[in-house]
Amino acid sequence: MIRPKRIIQASLTAAAVVGATLTFSGTAEAAGSCSGSLIDTYNVTGDNSPYAGQYVGQVRLYWDGTYNCAIFTKSGGPLYGLNTSMSIKLMAGTSPERSDIDNGTYAYYAGPVKVAAAGKCVRWEGSIIYNDRTVAYDSSSWDHCG
């Protein structure tokens, strides 16, 4: 009777390990969203033809009381659903500077990225590259201090 219980426990443990691996090894698109309250949004427009001046995405900034978190989404833009190189970097004005970056090839969004920023200012940088050309690069000033 003990043997079947051990087999079941081993199977459950293996399933948990596989599940954890699948959960944590996914792309940013599978990673979910930021916790906390949405505190700001920044519309990003294209820098170069054919997207110059055109909305291409949005950076969303969140705060949970300890951490700031950011996601760069292409929702509503002409590149939504297309695989492009994207990056989002979030920095906290600390010494030394704290930062988190996500870059890769994504169809929908990059991030989330998260930094501990209680009592500090934060800023972000984001980019989209498509067909070996920088479509958009944008950044914020140091903001949301506190």
TrEMBL record:
Keyword Signal: yes
Keywords associated with the record: Signal
Signal peptide as annotated in the record: 1-30
Stated name of the protein: Spore-associated protein A
